[in-house]
Design brief:
Length: about 260
């Protein structure tokens, strides 16, 4: 650890316990407890049951989970493609051009996501690009919101990448496209996996812009959770939230294993 003193280390752990446990772990624990409960008359939920999860298979929750996964996967792939292109372009520009491009791609996360949703709703509500009321506008919104993180992740990886490999390949007669696909992108693979995981996780939990754009036949799981808790179905909403978290964590775990193997190679 950076802290060498035993007393200081204990102090750091104490601060960690005081801040992290009540602010992060305790709320998640309460949600997990509510997912397996039937009533909440005291400090914590009570009445253990599995009916909250059993009811999910008979409703629209699994379909909403599928919609969320398709939306997140599609938005992550699109964001990764656009983020890699923009990061490579910014890396080739001068300092001023790179600053402008970075600011452009970070703009969607600098404003409230509701503003992004409203902007897309207004922009695509009339021909020739009439996307309002379709699943496409939801995917576009998620892509816009997560592309900034892919751009920043790849840009940081490019700053750390040794240019000697690309220079050697070019000196041996490799064309720019071959240098990109056979030298630079394989070296960036661990960062690409990390960016894909981040984009997927952020898209799975996106709610604000989605609430403004989603059509009735394309309802992601966060919207279902909000609707359930809004009408008082707290325990079924908590169960759906546990399913959402578990699915996201499983996908991130799978991506982290692929990233580890790629980094090892």
């Amino acid at each position: 650890m950076l802290v060498r003193s035993r007393t200081a280390r204990w102090a750091v752990w104490a601060v960690f316990a005081v801040l992290v446990l009540p602010l992060f772990l305790l709320p998640l624990g309460v949600i997990a407890a509510a997912a397996f409960a039937t009533n909440w008359s005291g400090v914590l939920p009570s009445g253990p049951t599995l009916d909250n999860f059993a009811g999910m298979s008979r409703g629209d929750t699994l379909e909403a989970l599928r919609v969320s996964m398709v939306t997140a996967a599609t938005a992550s792939v699109l964001a990764l493609v656009v983020g890699v292109w923009s990061a490579l372009t910014a890396h080739a520009l001068g300092r001023r051009g790179r600053a402008v491009l970075d600011a452009l791609f970070m703009l969607p996360v600098a404003v409230p996501t509701v503003v992004v949703g409203l902007a897309l709703l207004v922009a695509f509500s009339r021909p020739p690009l009439l996307l309002n009321g379709t699943q496409t506008i939801v995917i576009v919104a998620h892509t816009v919101l997560v592309t900034a993180f892919a751009h920043q992740s790849v840009s940081a990886a490019l700053d750390r990448l040794d240019p000697v490999y690309a220079q050697v390949a070019s000196s041996l007669g490799a064309r720019p496209a071959r240098v990109l696909f056979q030298v630079r992108l394989p070296l960036l693979l661990p960062s690409l996996r990390a960016a894909a995981g981040l984009c997927f996780a952020l898209s799975m939990g996106e709610l604000s812009a989605t609430m403004m754009l989603y059509p009735p036949d394309w309802t992601p799981l966060p919207v279902r959770i909000f609707a359930a808790t809004d009408r008082g179905a707290l325990f079924s909403g908590a169960a759906a939230a546990i399913v959402l978290m578990a699915t996201t964590l499983l996908v991130l775990l799978a991506l982290s294993r692929v990233r580890t193997r790629a980094a090892h190679r």
